[in-house]
Amino acid sequence: MVAAIFASCVAPTFISYQPYQFAWDDAGYLLQCIRVSRAFWSGNVRGLGAMYGLRPPAMTWLGLPGMVPSSWDAAGRCFVTLAAVISLLAAFCLYLLLRSGVKPLFLVAASVCVFASLGPYPTSPPFYAMSFAQEQSAGHYAATAFLADSLFAWTCLAAALLIPYEARTHCPSIRGALLRGILWGSILSLGVMTKISFFYFILLIVPTLFLIRLRNAGLRSALAALASFACFSAPSALYLVLFGRLAFQNAKASSFGGVGGLYYVSLLQFLGNAIRESPGLALSFVLTVSALIYLVIKWRTLLWGSDFLALLIPIGFGAIVLAAPNRQIRYVFPAIVAPPFLTALLMSKQGDSAPTRSAALAACLAFCGLLGAGVPVQHRASIQTLSRSDAVLAHAAGCHAKRILLLTDSPTLNYILMLLALQVSGKGALIKAGLVNTLATEDRFGVPIEEDFHAIGEADEVVLQDRDKLSPPFTNRRISEYEQYLRQGGYSPARVWDDVSVYSMRCRP
C-alpha cells in the first residue's frame, strides 16, 4: 500500500503525457544523445567526443539503449530511458527510507508534498507560448521536460539518504564496508555526471559518511569503505580531470557569471511567480516548516544528529541557488524534492527499520509501477518541434544553399533545433554537407556588427523570424540593424512558414 501511494504521488512529478516540443537545452541534450548513440553503435570512437561539452555526459547516454537512431523516434526512446532511470532512483530512495525507519504516515505525507509541489496542477501553456517569467517558474513543465533537473533532484535525495541509512543500518564487516563504498560511489558518480553542481553534495556527504562509518564500525571498516568508494568513483573523477574544465566554467558563468546576469529576476518576483505557477509549493513549505517547528519544541535533541545534517544539505543547496542571479525553478528541485522526505525521517525519530526483503519488495513494486507509467512517454515528443527548421531546410535544398545563417533566436527556431533537424530530418539529408550558423550570441560577446554584416554577405541563405515570436531579448538585440542591412541590399524575403522569412542571397534553383 505504501509503495503504491508513493508511486502514485511521485509519478506525475516527472512523467507527463502532454505533447512536448523541444526548445534550447532539451534540444541540445537530445542532439548529443543521438550523436553519441550513433557513434557508439557504429563503432566510431571519435564520434563519442559528442558527449564532451558544456555539461557532464549523463544525459547523453540516454540514447544508448535504443540502438542506432535514424529518425524522430529516437526522441521518444530517450524520453522512456530518462523516465526509467528516474523511476529506478525514486524506487531506490523508497528502499533507503524504509530501511532507515520512516513511518508510513510520514512517508505518505512527504509524497503528497512533492506531488503538490511538482504535480500537473495547474496546467501550464506550451513552452513556446510561455512568457519569460513563466519559463523560469513553471515547475511541472520543467520537472517533466527532457532536462537533467528531475534526474538530478532524485539523485540528490538518494545521496542525502545515504547519511541516515549509514547511521541507522550497521554493517561492520569488511565485505559490508566494501559494498557500502560501491553504493556511495555509484550514487555520487551519477550525481556529478549529471550536473557539476553536485560537487556541493560530495564535499558534504562523503566526510559525513566516513565519520559515521568510523564511529559505528571502526577505522579499518571506514578505510575499506573509503577505498572502495575511491576505486568505484575513479572513472568519473578521471573524466572531470580530463574534460571537466569546460563544464566548471559553464556552471560558474551560468550561475554567478555574465550569463547568469542575463536571466536575473529579483528574489521576491521569482518566489511570487513560482507560487503562482505551482501553488502546491506553499503547502509543502508550510507542512515541512510546521514539522520542523514541532521537532524543535518537542524533540530538540534530534536536531543535533546526522539525520538533521542530511536535511540541511539540500536546504543549503537551495539557498545557494536562490542567491544566484539566474533563478529558475528547475535549479531548486533538490530543495523541493528532498526536504519533505528527510523531514519525514526526522519525524519518525528512531523508528523500526523495515526488513531488507520487505523494503526491497516495496521498492521493486514502486519501480514496476513507475516504469509502466513511463512507457507511454515514447509518444510524447512532437514532430512539430522541427516544423520551422524543416521548412528552412526544404527551401535551402531547393536553392542548393549550403550555408544557412540564423539572424534570430526563439524557442521554435534556433541554432540547436536546426542542427537537430539536420540529424533526424529527411530534408536535412539533402544539404547534410552544408553549414548552419547563428548570430544570436555575437552581440553578447562584443563582436562588431560589421563582422555580422560580412557573415550575412557570405551566407547562401539567411533566416529571420517575426519579432513577436522571439525570445529571449538578449539574443535578439540586433534585429533592426539586420533588417535594415537586408533592405538596403535589395534582398526580398520568401515566406517559408507563418512566422519565418528566408532571404536567399545566392539562390540557384
List strands and helices in order, with pairings:
Elements lengths: L1 H9 L14 H17 L31 H27 L4 H15 L13 H6 L1 H5 L5 H20 L5 H21 L4 H19 L1 H25 L1 H11 L2 H5 L4 H11 L2 H19 L7 H18 L9 H15 L8 H19 L12 H12 L4 E4 L8 H10 L10 E4 L10 H10 L2 E5 L13 H10 L4 E5 L2 E5 L5
Provide a descriptive summary of the structure in words.
It is a single chain. This protein is mainly alpha-helical. Helix content is 60%, strand content 5%. It is built from 21 helices and five strands. Strands 2-1-3-5-4 form a five-stranded mixed β-sheet, with helices on both faces. β1 (403-406), α19 and β2 (435-438) form a beta-alpha-beta unit. α7 packs antiparallel against α15 (306-323) and α9 (199-217) packs antiparallel against α10 (219-243). The N and C termini lie far apart (66 Å).
Shape: elongated
End-to-end distance: 66 Å
Give me the Rg, rounded. Answer: 25 Å
SSE-based structural type: mainly alpha
Poorly predicted regions = none
Strand order of the largest sheet: 2-1-3-5-4
Task: Give the overall average pLDDT.
Answer: 86
Element string (H = helix, E = strand): HHHHHHHHHHHHHHHHHHEHEHEHEE
Give the tally of β-strands: 5
Contiguous helical run count:
21
Main sheet, how many strands, which sense, barrel? 5 strands, mixed
Task: Please estimate the helix content.
Answer: 55-70%
**Share in β-strands:** under 5%
